[in-house]
Structures are given as C-alpha cells and as structure tokens.
C-alpha cells in the first residue's frame, strides 16, 4: 500500500446511515504532494477499526490518473475593453473618439509556482488572427503605439512567479495611437506558462470589437429663414455634412439674438437622422411666441460622438398678433386643515403663445355671482405651481395678482395649469356660506373675452365649543374622564382629545386614539372614556376639541389638569434580625432560631397613601414571585412558615400618611421556620391603596442564601483519651466524630478544675487544622503543649455547627508527667579535623567520643559547628566550617541517635581560598517533616547562595543556587513557620551601596514542601547599613498564636541606639512584608545584634 488517509472528524455521526448489506458512497479530498505525474493510483476504503469491507463492486475502486508534470494554463477569461480612463467599458462594436484602449484578461493555471504571460493581438477587423497556440516570438509592451508594433500587432503582459491555481493572474495592456477606422478592430488573447505551453486563443466576441474615429465631422451649412408666422418659423437647411461615419443632426434655439448652445431648447425632426435630411429642404419650429426674436443653430454628430456646428447662427422673429388670451377655473375647494385656504386651479392659454400673461382673481358672497361689487382676495405668494415648471409670481398689490411685472404665466409651450391658494380667513374670517370667484386673464394688451366664474362653500366659523372634561377615576397608568356638553356645527366632523405633561395642552400634543364615539356630536351616548398607557406619578393636562369638515375647531374651557397615581418608590429590603429585632442577621449567616424578623421601607410621592409591604420568604431553591400586582393569599405578621401557603407575609399602614420624604417602614415576623441546609432568601414588594405596586420586587441580597437556619445541636463527639504525655504536653486519641451535617469545627477546652467550660483554655483549629474537619482529617491524635508539669487537667471536646449550636463530650482527666531531664547530644571541636561529641542520658554525660574527620586534608581544622535535630528526633544534621589558614570549607554529616553513629559526611562545594568571613560560619540548616534536611551556604567570594539537601535513602544532593541577595553572604538563619515546612531564610551580606560596603539584611520564603524542592520567593532587601559586617544581623519570629504572621528584626543604621521590627504575613506559598516599627533608644551604644524569641504563651509577642 502506498499511503493511507483518515477522515478529519472520524467521530462525527453520519446523518445518513447505511443499512446492513447496503451500498454507501463517500466523497474524499485527498492531498498528496509526493504523488508522481502521469501515474495511475487506486483507492479503497476500510472501516474505522481497520477491517475491510466484505466486498467491492468490480467498478467501485476509485482509479485516478495524476496530471502530467506540467499542465497547460486554462483558457483566458474575464476579457474586457476600456477607454483610456480604465473604468469606462467599450461595448462590443462600439465607436470611440479616443485613439487609445485598455485591454484586460485573467487566467488560471493548475500548477504551483508558475510564470504566466498573456498575449493580446489587436488587428483590423478585415485582417486574419494568429491561430498557432505557441508563444509568439515577437511582441510589444504596455503603451506601445499601434503602428510601432507592426510584428503581428501583439502586446504582452507577464506575471511574477506565483500560485495562480485559485486566484488568477490578471493583466492589462495599453495600445496607443490607434488610427481611425470605420472597419474597426478585433482582438484575441493567449495564455502561456514558463514551459512554453499555451492555451487556446480566446476573443471577446465577434468583430469588430471597437471602432475608432477621432476626427470631427465637416460642419453642416448655415440655416436660413423661409417663412414666419405668429407661433412658428419654417427654416431652410444649408449644405449637408460630408462625414462618412454620420450619426445625426441636432438643432437648438432660444429667445434672443445670439449664443445658442446645446443646453438650450432642442428642436426634433425625423429628417435629422439622415445625412441628407431625407432630401428635404426645411423644417418647421412650432410653439413659438408671437412677435419674438429667436436664435437657431445646427450641429452634425458622427458615430464616435465627435461634432461640428454651422458657422453662422440664424436669427429670426415671429410675426406679431393681437388675439386675446383664454382662461377657465378648473377647480376651487376649501382645504380641510382649518386654515381657510381655498385651493384654486386655473387653465390659461394664448393663441399667440405669449409668455406675458397674468390673471385677476375676484370674489363675492352669495350664489348669484353677479359681481356688482367684487372684492380683492389675499393670495398666498409662497404656494404657487404650474404645469410648465416655471410658476408665476404672486403680488397682491396689483389688480392682476397672478403673473406680475416679472414672473409671467408662460404659454409658449402650450396651455398652462396654474395652482395657488386664496387665504380666505384673512378676508372673510367668519364666513359660513356660498362664495363666487371670477378669473380674468390678460396678455399685456387684452383681457380674455369672457371672464370665468365658479362658486363654492366657504366655512371659516368654528364649531360650538364642547363642555369641559371632568375627572372620573385614575390609577398609576390611566385616567378616566367624563364628557361635558355637546358641540354643534353645520359641517360637524368629529371630536378629538389631546393630552400633555405640560400646560397648556394643544392640538400638537399627544392625541387619544381610543374609541369614544368621536364622530357623533352626542358621542353616540357614551359618557366617558379612559386614557391608558400613561406614566405613573405624572401631571397631565387634557382637553377636547370639536372639528368641522373644513378643519375649524373649538376646545373646551377650562382644560382638565390632573395626575396619575405615583407608584411606590425607593423600595428597600432593609434588614433581617433575630427575634429581639435588634441583633442583625448578616447575609448568609446561620442562626439557631426558627423565627426571624424582616424589615423593609418604601416611599410614595403621593401626599396621602396607605402603603402595604409584602415579604416573599422562600427556600433557596424555590422560585421568587415576579408579578408586580397585589399578591394573593398573603399572610399576617407572625404566621408560621408552614401555614402560609403563598409564602408572602404583609404589613399594611393603619392610616393614610405622607411618605413622600420619610419612608413607610414595616417589620414582619415569620415563625416555625424549618431547618434547611439550603437556606432561605427573600424579597419585598410595595403596593398602595389603589393597588398600584412598585415596578419590581426588591431582593434583600443577590448573594444567596440570605439566611440559614439550624436549631438542632450536633451529636456529641466521643471523649478524648490519652495516647501519650510528657511533662509539658499530652497527646490525645480522638473519640467518635459528630454526625452534624452543618459541621464547622471542634474545640477542646481544658482546665485544672472541673467542670470545664467554654471560658477555660482553648485548643482549636488554629492550633490543629484537623479540628476543622468532621472526621478529624483522618488524623487519630492531636497534641496540646505548653502545659504545666505534674499537673491534673480536665479536657472536653465540643462540636459546633454553622448556626452556633454545640454539644460537648464527657470530661477526661489526665495528669502531666513530672519534669525530668531528656537525653541529648553536644558536638564540639578541639582545633582539629575531628568532630567530637558527648551524649547526655538525661541524668549524666557519657564519655567523650570521636566522630568523623571533616575537612579535605590535614590542617583543615573545624572552626564552626551547627547542629539541628530532625522532626522525629532520630537524626541530627551537623553543619561545620573548616579553616587551614588559607582555605575555608563547608561540610555536613548526619548523626543517627539510636545507632550512635555518623553517615554521609560530605563537602558542600569547593573550598574558598580567602580569609574573608573565616570567623563566621556563613551557613544555616533546616529540617523537613519528610525526614529530610537542607543546608544553605554562601557562594564563596561570589554573590548568592548554594543549597544542598539530604534524605535517608540518597544522602546529600547538590540543589544548585538558592536565593540571591545580590551580595556576598556573611551569615544566614532559617526560621521555621510553626507546624509547617515553610522557612524564612534571613541573610546578612556585604553589598556595595554608593561605594561603601555595608551590612545588608534581607529574606526569602521557602515553600517547597516536606521534601526539598527549589521553591523560593524572590529575595527581598529590608535594611542597610548595619553597624558591623563581622557580626550576623537579622532575626525573625512567627506569632505563636497565629502562624500566618510574624516580624523581622534589623537596625538599618550604623549609628542608632535602637532597632526595628518589620511585620509580615504569609500563606503556604507566599509572604508579604508590611509596616516597620522602631524600638526605643534603649542602649547606651550603637545597636549591633540581638536574638529574637517568640513568647510561646503570648499573642503576637516576642522578646
């Protein structure tokens, strides 16, 4: 098998399952860049577990032939031809009046890393294309002139090397200086790769693809006048153009004596599309104005858009005529918007096509329309239009108001509809009858023969005002109003109600759209209506208007001023208390009482209200109420939890009050609340006496549960029993554990008298973390230290739950041992390599014994010794430093107490050939609870420290570099955090500060665990300078009562008679340093060094 493939998501379920013995079909996309060209490959599928299918159909094996080593480029596509701006497309066979074109094409090539070329051949439409599909031997480059590219007229564009399998190579070429040709040009394009393999030639369409003409036509002959009339002119053509590529003639004219252009009025004639004017000699221009001078000219256009105009313009004047104009009133109707405006539309014409017409409008009251005594109407000068998009001016100061000394009524294009408004309320403000209007049109000389007249109704009188609205009822979001007396009017249309939050309310404000019988003067017998969807606690001004059919209106007086009810605001679930209503229950707190008091408060902006507060108190896993309506089934103060099915308690105000500023506060009592480890939560809602409620419930606290209740004491733990004891300590066996579900901790109280109470001495989880675990953390024992020797003590253990319930074991009485001396060992030197020691038996010293020789050679005498016991007391590590007068060496060995021997004597690193600090040990040791030791020493004459660890099975290990103080370490001390494997490494080093070598105190915190791991915090500097670099400075202690805090001692001065303590706090893997406290200047001289010891019976006290 050549290669295998796997689908990209084999765990994806196939939505189209295949039945057993069924047929399936898959689509695969296989990529193999190592395949051979022109080679057959077969494919088969197997199951996901590697087994073969039962069988394949004989034709089911996929068989694929790879491509040859090089594949011919695809045929070019996306062919395009453009004007020289590269954006204007040249349509196929179109003419252009430029002698340059831009040609574009694109090509895809199946091969990777190809250099492609596109070859564009451009030839006359009558010439023959190249047909050979090989790379042209001669070609021109972008921008080459047509005649300069005589070799087959081929232009080339070449790509850079790239991948054109999906994104094509797109090329553009430019052909310039193309000669004029009515025959036109055609073009084709060929794609070739850098292996000289080419596609087929491709052309954009059948030719010619474009034609070129950049020469303007020969101008046509000058026009001449044949015949005149009042409204038309017959104009003779001049000589025709000689343009071979003729397209059309265009004639333009305007009133005046010269300067006609193509932006003026065009004259159309079907003969203009023929080069010879269809062999006619003239054309007639109609719709001219009588007695008016005009100027004309004619242009010849070719197919490419080139043009030429006759040399001399024709100036001609129509004959004069005195035929009167005509006019009629097309329509006259009053608007229905209450403005009193009359929409008037007139039709005006003039047989002479005069453009100096004007119109006079008159009016008269009554139906006779005799106009014995007519009046001049006020016409709106700003609202006029006509059908020729050249509306006349309006000037009410003239008898003929429409069409004045300028801005006439135009009629030369034909009759003209003119529309305008008569502002009748200015002239007849209280009209309510029939009126007539008369139209007289004038052409500057004559009025129309018979004026036009039209009559219509004008109603400018307002309806009788309806009676004022009065308040019937209201709540937080609606107001119900009563209707007053009815309106009346000849043309009554409807009532409309408007309202606003500001005064006065107008018909531009919000309109009430509900049904209230508005189209009947009597409201169809309806007496009231309700405006809803209003904002709570908001002032509203409401009024009613009566309207007639013409928009005249009258409103009631006075308007109704009222307001919606306010909803309760500033709702707050204030607090939860024990039964005494004083002791606060903190959020999430456990209580050992089955009753609670809940308080809440609310404001209401309304002056006189009777608020009610509803308390929804539920189990933490139940669902709060969300509806902001008055809760059903609410229970009274003191109802027990089980008897209140709604789980809602209410407290109502007993009398109306003003709670707009000072809130209404209510307290409810809920009794007989069951134990629940899930806890409870609660929220409140406030409603007023109109049943308007706050817009949402207010929760006491989103951190839930709010209250946990447990009134059942824990089961008593089993009594302690003696496991072992000393003169100062007793180790106890734990008894049976409590079964309390809500367990918090055990506490051991003890005293020298019985009974033992919670006011006696305490031993708790801060002393032994196992006491915080119900099963004692699987520990079997605990040890109480600091006891007096030979003393009788009484002990009880108490179990506490989260609510503070508790139960104690029975008392156990145990005596501590009398004080006796314990065994020990002292190690010392005699200015030799040998380490000497003597064992203390508890009552006497054994004889001196010799230990191992330390130091690498004779004369390497032991100068310093430090010893440290293991946690279990079975071993002692000894750190020694030797000096031969020239070299310092650091050594370690381990003394086994029971065997009374030494193992694993070991040199810590290389010797230091220097006398610097030879008088100081410059190293320190520590024990770990896993049975290991580790040693920190200085780095000879270099900055930093070196670390070595020891374990019983492997002996000593070089752990590499330790914390780096940035100086040569003079001394160190490892201070253990009580009951842990954390150590604070204190260092004292020589550091150059400002060119002076001063003592420098710093520390790093070890958190590597019970077997050594390289886990230290970054070394931190605390103070410099110190008084004497030859004396170790820097001490630390941990608080005996709380091992998460302590202090560091240093002086930070080489002259002060005082010292300092810097506070710190720590966790299992971090330390943070805090404030500094300065001691009194107690000593008579400068402070050099002190030792710091924690008070074992104190709280944060050290000496």
Write a concise synopsis of the structure shown.
The protein has one helix and 69 strands. With 1103 residues, it is mainly β.
Mind explaining what this structure looks like?
By secondary structure, this protein is mainly β. The chain folds into 9 domains: 1-69, no CATH class; 77-212, Immunoglobulins (Immunoglobulin-like, Sandwich), CATH 2.60.40.10; 224-317, Sandwich (Immunoglobulin-like); 326-459, Immunoglobulin-like, CATH 2.60.40; 470-563, Immunoglobulin-like, CATH 2.60.40; 573-709, Immunoglobulin-like (Sandwich), CATH 2.60.40; 721-815, Immunoglobulin-like (Sandwich), CATH 2.60.40; 821-911, Lipocalin; and more. The chain contains 1 helix and 69 strands. Strands 35, 37, 38, 40, 41 and 42 form a 6-stranded mixed beta sheet that branches. A 5-stranded mixed beta sheet has the order 4-10-9-6-7, with no helix packed on it.
């Amino acid at each position: 098998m050549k290669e295998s493939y796997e689908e990209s998501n084999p765990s994806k379920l196939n939505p189209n399952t295949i039945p057993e013995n069924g047929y399936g079909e898959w689509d695969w996309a296989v990529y193999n860049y190592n395949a051979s060209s022109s080679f057959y490959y077969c494919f088969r599928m197997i199951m996901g577990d590697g087994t073969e299918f039962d069988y394949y159909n004989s034709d089911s094996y996929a068989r694929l032939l790879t491509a040859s080593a090089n594949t011919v480029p695809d045929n070019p596509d996306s062919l395009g031809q453009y004007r020289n701006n590269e954006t204007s497309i040249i349509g196929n066979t179109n003419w252009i009046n430029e002698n340059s074109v831009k040609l574009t094409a694109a090509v895809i090539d199946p091969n990777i890393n190809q250099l492609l070329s596109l070859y564009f051949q451009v030839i006359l439409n009558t010439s023959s294309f190249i047909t050979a599909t090989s790379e042209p031997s001669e070609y021109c480059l972008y921008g080459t002139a047509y005649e300069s590219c005589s070799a087959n007229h081929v232009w080339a564009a070449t790509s850079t090397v790239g991948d054109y399998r999906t994104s094509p190579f797109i090329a553009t070429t430019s052909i310039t200086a193309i000669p004029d040709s009515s025959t036109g040009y055609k073009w084709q394009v060929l794609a070739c790769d850098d292996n000289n393999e080419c596609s087929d030639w491709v052309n954009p369409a059948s030719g010619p693809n474009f034609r070129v003409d950049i020469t303007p036509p020969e101008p046509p002959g000058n026009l001449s006048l044949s015949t005149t009339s009042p409204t038309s002119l017959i104009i003779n053509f001049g000589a025709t153009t000689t343009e071979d590529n003729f397209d059309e003639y265009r004639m333009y004219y305007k009133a005046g004596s010269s300067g006609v252009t193509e932006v003026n009025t065009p004259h159309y004639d079907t003969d203009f599309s023929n080069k010879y004017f269809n062999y006619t000699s003239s054309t007639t221009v109609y719709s001219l104005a009588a007695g008016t001078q005009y100027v004309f000219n004619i242009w010849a256009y070719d197919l490419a858009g080139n043009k030429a105009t006759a040399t001399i313009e024709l100036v001609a004047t129509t004959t004069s005529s005195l035929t009167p104009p005509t006019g009629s009133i097309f329509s006259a109707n009053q608007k229905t918007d209450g403005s009193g405006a009359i929409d008037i539309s007139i039709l005006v014409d003039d047989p002479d096509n005069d453009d100096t017409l004007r119109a006079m409008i008159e009016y008269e009251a009554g139906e006779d329309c005799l106009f014995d005594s007519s009046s001049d109407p006020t016409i709106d000068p700003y609202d006029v239009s006509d059908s020729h998009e050249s509306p006349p001016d309006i000037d009410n100061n003239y008898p003929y108001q429409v069409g004045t000394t300028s801005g006439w009524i135009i009629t030369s294009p034909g009759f003209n509809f003119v529309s305008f408004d008569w502002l009748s309320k200015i002239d007849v403000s209280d009209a309510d009858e029939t009126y007539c209007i008369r139209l007289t049109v004038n052409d500057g000389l004559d009025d129309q023969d018979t004026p036009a007249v039209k009559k219509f109704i004008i109603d400018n009188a307002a309806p009788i005002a309806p009676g004022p609205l009065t308040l019937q009822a209201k709540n937080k979001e609606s107001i119900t109003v009563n209707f007053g007396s009815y309106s009346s009017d000849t043309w009554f249309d409807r009532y409309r109600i408007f309202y606003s939050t500001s005064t006065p309310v107008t018909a531009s404000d919000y309109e009430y759209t509900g049904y209230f019988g508005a189209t009947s003067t009597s409201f169809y017998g309806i007496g009231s209506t309700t405006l809803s969807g209003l904002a709570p606690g908001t002032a509203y001004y409401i009024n009613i208007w009566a309207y007639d059919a013409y928009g005249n209106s009258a409103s009631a007086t006075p308007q109704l001023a009222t307001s919606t009810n306010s909803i309760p605001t500033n709702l707050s679930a204030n607090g939860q208390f024990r039964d005494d209503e004083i002791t606060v229950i903190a959020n999430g707190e456990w209580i050992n009482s089955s009753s609670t008091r809940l308080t809440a408060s609310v404001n209401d902006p309304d002056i006189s209200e009777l608020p009610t507060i509803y308390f929804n108190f539920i189990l933490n896993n139940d669902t709060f109420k969300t509806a902001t309506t008055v809760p059903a089934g609410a229970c009274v103060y003191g109802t027990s939890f089980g008897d209140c099915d709604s789980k809602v308690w209410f407290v109502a105000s007993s009398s109306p009050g003003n709670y707009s500023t000072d809130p209404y506060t209510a307290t409810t009592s809920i009794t007989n609340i069951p134990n629940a480890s899930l806890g409870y939560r609660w929220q409140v809602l406030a409603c007023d006496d109109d049943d308007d409620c706050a817009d949402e419930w207010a929760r006491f606290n989103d951190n839930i549960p709010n209250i946990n209740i447990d009134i059942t004491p824990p089961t008593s733990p089993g009594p302690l029993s003696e496991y072992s004891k000393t003169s100062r300590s007793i180790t106890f066996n734990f008894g049976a554990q409590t079964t309390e579900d809500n367990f918090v901790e055990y506490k051991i109280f003890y005293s020298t008298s019985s009974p033992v109470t919670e006011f006696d001495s305490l031993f708790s989880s801060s002393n032994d973390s196992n006491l915080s675990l119900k099963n004692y953390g699987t520990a079997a024992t605990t040890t109480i230290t600091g006891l007096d020797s030979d003393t009788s003590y009484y002990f009880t253990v108490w179990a506490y739950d989260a609510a503070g319930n508790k139960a104690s074991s029975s008392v156990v009485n145990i005596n501590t041992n009398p004080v006796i001396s314990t065994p020990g060992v002292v190690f010392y030197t005699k200015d030799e390599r040998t380490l000497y020691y003597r064992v203390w038996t508890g009552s006497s010293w054994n004889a001196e014994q010799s230990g191992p020789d330390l130091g690498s050679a004779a004369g390497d005498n032991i100068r310093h010794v430090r010893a440290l016991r293991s946690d279990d007391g079975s071993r002692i590590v000894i750190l020694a430093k030797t000096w031969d007068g020239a070299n310092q060496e650091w050594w370690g060995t381990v003394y086994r107490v029971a065997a009374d021997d030494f193992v694993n004597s070991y040199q810590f690193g290389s010797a230091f050939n220097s006398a610097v600090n030879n008088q100081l040990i410059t190293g320190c040791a520590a024990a770990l609870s896993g049975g290991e030791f580790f040693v920190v020493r200085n780095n000879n004459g270099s900055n930093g420290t070196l670390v070595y660890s020891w374990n019983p099975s492997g002996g000593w290990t070089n752990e590499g570099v330790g914390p780096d103080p940035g100086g040569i370490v003079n001394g160190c001390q490892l201070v253990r955090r009580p009951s842990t494997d954390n150590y604070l490494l204190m260092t004292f080093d020589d550091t150059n500060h400002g060119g002076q070598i001063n003592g420098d105190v710093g520390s790093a915190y070890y958190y590597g665990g019970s077997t050594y791991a390289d886990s230290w915090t970054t070394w931190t500097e605390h103070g410099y300078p110190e008084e004497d670099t030859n004396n170790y400075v820097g001490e630390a202690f941990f608080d005996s009562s709380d091992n998460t805090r302590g202090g560091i001692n240093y002086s930070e001065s080489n002259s002060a008679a005082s010292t300092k303590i810097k506070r710190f706090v720590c966790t299992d893997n971090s330390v943070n340093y805090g404030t500094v406290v300065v001691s009194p200047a107690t000593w008579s001289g400068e402070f050099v060094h002190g030792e710091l010891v924690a008070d074992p019976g104190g709280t944060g006290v050290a000496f």
